[in-house]
Amino acid sequence: MVVNSEGYQALIEYLVESLGLFEQKDGPTCDDTIEDLVSDRVATSLMAICEQNPHIDAELRFVIMQEADAVVADLQEVLSAVWQRPATTAQRDFLIEFVDLIKNLFDSLLR
């Protein structure tokens, strides 16, 4: 579905190209770790997808949940060195936008 799409692969490449942002430890930090931010944002996006698409059946919802788990696993792999570190404000903003872009991939496939 999404994780095997060209759009998703391009987003992962974009994340890898942006890893310099995650090497920064200075600057204002959030209370949340990178893991918390990613997990919460993906879960929020998953709920929004289901609410916005009440017509999808239980089987497709399950596939979407599996895909969301795969997204979190991929992000954990790419960001493993900083996964437990508190996020800086810039990192938080990047991750929010990044997960929103992934949600857009789901939205486009469900239309």
Could you explain how this protein is built, in words?
- By secondary structure, this protein is mainly alpha-helical.
- It has one domain (6-110).
- It is 70% helix and 7% strand.
- The chain has helices spanning 6-17, 20-23, 34-52, 58-78, 89-110, and strands spanning 29-33, 86-88.
- Strands 1-2 form a two-stranded antiparallel ribbon.
- Helix 1 packs antiparallel against helix 5 (89-110), helix 3 (34-52) runs antiparallel to helix 4 (58-78) and helix 3 (34-52) runs parallel beside helix 5 (89-110).
- It is elongated, with a radius of gyration of 14 Å.
- The two termini are 13 Å apart.
- The model has no long low-confidence stretch (mean pLDDT 95).
Write the layout of secondary structure elements.
Blueprint: H1 6-17, H2 20-23, E1 29-33, H3 34-52, H4 58-78, E2 86-88, H5 89-110
Antiparallel strand pairs: 1-2
Stretches with pLDDT under 50, minimum 5 residues: none
Number of domains: 1
How many strands in all? 2
- The fraction of residues assigned to DSSP E strands is 5-15%
Instruction: Give the rounded overall mean pLDDT.
Output: 95
Net shape: elongated
Percentage of residues in helical conformation = over 70%
Structural class: mainly alpha
Radius of gyration: 14 Å
* Main sheet: strands, sense, barrel: 2 strands, antiparallel
Q: What's the arrangement of strands in the largest beta sheet? A: 1-2
H/E element order: HHEHHEH
Total helical elements: 5
From the structure above, extract its key features.
111 residues, 2 strands, elongated
